[in-house]
Protein: Carbamoyltransferase
Organism: Triparma retinervis
Amino acid sequence: GSLSLCTEEWLRSQVPPSSPPPDPLTSLLPPVTCYQNNHHFPIPTIDTPSLYDPSAPDTPSVVWGSALGYTLPPSASSTCLSSPLNIPSPSATTIGHHLAHAYSGVGLACLGGPGLKSGIVSVMDGMGDTLEMGLPERSGWEGGFKAALQDDGRGLLLTPGGDSVMPPLPPHLTFRESESFYAFTYSPSSPLSISLLPVLKRYSSTASPLTPSHGFEGYNSLGAGYSRVSSHVFGHWNECGKLDTNAMVVSTLSSVLLSASSLYGPGCSSGLVLTGGVALNSVANGLLKTMEGRPFGDVCVPPFAGDEGVAFGAAIKCAIDVHGGTERGRKIEEAIGNFEPYTGTEYGEEEVRDAISGFSGFVNVKEFAGMEDELVAFAAERIAGGEVIAWYQGKAEVGPRALGHRSILGDPRDGKLVDFINKKIKVRENFRPFAPSVLKEYISEWFEWDDDDDQDVSPYMSLTLQARQSKVASIPAVIHVDGSSRIQSVDGSKPGTRLYHKLISKFMDLTGVPMVLNTSFNTIKSEPIVEKPRGAMVSFLMRAPELRWLILGDYVIERRPVVVSPEDTFVVKGGFSLSTRERFWGGVGDVGSVEEATVRMQGLEEWGDISVHPEVGGDVLALCDGTRTVEEVAEELGGDVAEVVEVVASLEKNMLLKKIVV
């Protein structure tokens, strides 16, 4: 990009004294170096796509961009940072994928809340870097440490010492990282004195063509196992949650982690850090955390165990190499010590107001600025009264879990909410469970966790605990079939969770229950958690018509009740196109189909597709032009007025029609 990182003083020194001073871009120093990882393709200097496609224009591009057909503008420099002010380009260092994962977990475990001094970090995911990319320094095998590759019949094991044995491979195959284990130590006496010592790495063979889509078929990593089975059973690699075999996989995973980690004796007795996509398995994490005798000491999982954590790990490794042992390194340690998972963009009051005003005809709004107690009380009363609310506060969470800033909240005492939220709000399978956000001071009272020194046991909703038998019947909406819950422990002393803790505390005052049901604020399958205020309004109004309340910062927003009479006149809120398709439903051995029509609002692509009645929905939209009443629309269609009133009400609830008020 064109953003330069430099001090304001340096910027001022680059312009003549007579010129107006430039706006400071940031308070950071000029870039010294760049640490990076892309485990599908290297990130090299700029090349030309003609190396891969002779017909492509001779435009600068990177290798993985060439494979996708993307190109960079001719002005692009040979590094990821370029400058219109001629700042010298920083050097770039590529580190291994699993090494970046490892540093992301260890950096937070040592410098953040857990404060570990030593232990084992496990990295397990779908696939990491190739063998060619990963040796030696990029995978942590450095400092003269000798590594040997051994063929174990299922792949290659990289272990200390010995002689390497490389089995022959066909040209179209390569080896990629499957699982990695590192021992780590941290000495607080010197800033950023974190070291990783590799103890085991396994590589699996896989096809590796010049394409970003490396399928999991035939790949022998633990993480890929989920996806392979899912692909064969359900036709999609990312439907792992449906698998009845999940319990078996979890049990096997826990055994693998226990066996592998225990191989290294006292090294892991003080702490076990889990990273990589497999570390998102909260059941396995909970089994390891609560294992009898606590053989691993503390078990830590960062909020970004997946690939979003690779950037954090690269930054930690960079900080250690560049600022280790320095005063700046100490400041970096202090910053990480105050880490909270709310790292998204801070949206201002103006953006919130603009988002609300864009839907003024559909909502009632009340402002609670400077009235935090009243705002929290209002939300808690709605939840305790059996309603479900959308809750949007501050910066968004990093990682896949909603942790009280972008959440849909409900009453954990009401078991019927599971079916209601899954069907009416989240639009997903009805077996999907929900998690509780629990005041950390009540964890051991409600769940089987007896460590009074570690009540903030799961701040990132990364593990499950068994509910105490005496409490199961009180919170059916957040209990899995085996009596466990994937909990988030909420600490009221931290800035990012202070307001959320206050809300749950008020709910407890009303109900005696120190938790709320918490699920991510996204209201359509495969949609990410909402980010911007406008996205929250869209998700609330158009995609979740059964939601009545959204609390957006200091504003309580109520969906206006939909009341349609035959005399009302409506107009389409925007242009639209209509298509009809056959939608298949059902599971294995139970397949059927139903015709449905889909509306896409023109110019509002972010809203996506809305299903409507295939016979009358599209016709009603076409006739609601602001000149006809609902009754006249029904007459033109030759349909029943009551039926058309019902269709219009549904279309208005989904934000497709807007009533004209004279």
Remarks:
- Residues 112-308 form one domain.
- The mean pLDDT is 76.
- The longest strand covers residues 173-186.
- The longest helix spans residues 246-262.
